[in-house]
Specification:
Keywords: Flavonoid biosynthesis, Isomerase. By secondary structure, this protein is of the alpha+beta class. It has one domain (about 10-220): Chalcone isomerase, CATH 3.50.70.10. About 35% of the residues lie in helices and about 25% in strands. It has 7 helices and 13 strands. The longest helix is centred in the middle third of the chain and has 19 residues, at about 105-125.
């Protein structure tokens, strides 16, 4: 297994993502897989960056991913749809730390996530009524939330398929979440829309590919999957 003590923090814009965090709703400490800015959008006629995103993984992810991806370069990984799908669907905990650069209302952010999830399901033909209902419940969690610059939205994802949603107005991470959505499609697609084929953060994908490649290639042996 790779030496996770070598994992470093990453600064995106003015925000520093620490090397290790304990996400809401779990007893585990996860390591920073990668981080990057969300692709910018046009707002009031100007091109603006919206959020900084950090993606954390359970340390079990290193050995699990090494079976298939050890020996691959960062360039090979960043161009591989299957690599990022393996991160999205792998049987280990994940944590998405979304830091606001622009001021977004909670529902404004949630509706954009909803739009991206529906677009992915439509493109892949994977929409189902249960996922659609769970996505509506996901959006409702953001009702009344406000995210000024510096605030964070936090997603803790579990192998069972649930996703815990949390909020903070600063860099502090709460011990428990605000709500849990019990639906694998929603949980996985939230991450898919960030680092998948048409993900909103190419910078986070590049960071993940670079950092994970180094970790995998430092594994002393490859366990059987």
């Amino acid at each position: 297994m790779s030496n996770l003590l070598s994992v470093t923090e990453v600064q995106v814009e003015s925000h520093v993502f620490p090397a290790m965090v304990k996400p809401p709703g779990t007893t585990k400490t996860l390591f920073l897989g990668g981080a990057g800015v969300r692709a910018g959008v046009y707002r009031e006629g100007e091109f603006a960056k919206v959020t900084a995103i950090g993606v954390y993984l359970d340390d079990n992810a290193v050995e699990w991913l090494a079976v298939k991806w050890k020996g691959k370069s960062a360039e090979e990984l960043v161009d591989s749809i299957d690599f990022f799908r393996d991160i999205v669907t792998g049987p280990f905990e994940k944590f998405i730390h979304v830091k606001m650069i622009l001021h977004l209302r909670g529902m404004e952010y949630a509706e954009k996530v909803k739009e991206n999830c529906l677009a992915y399901w439509k493109a892949t033909g994977t929409y189902n009524d249960a996922a659609g209902e769970a996505l509506e419940n996901f959006v409702k969690v953001f009702n009344g939330e406000d995210s000024p610059p510096g605030a964070v939205v936090l997603f803790t994802q579990f192998p069972c398929g649930s996703i815990t949603i949390s909020f903070s107005k600063d860099d502090s991470i709460p011990e428990t979440g605000k709500s849990v959505i019990e639906n694998r499609e929603v949980s996985e697609t939230v991450l898919e829309t960030i680092i998948g084929k048409n993900g909103v953060s190419p910078a986070a994908k590049q960071s993940l590919a670079t950092r994970i490649s180094k970790l995998l290639n430092s594994c002393s042996k490859i366990p059987e999957k």
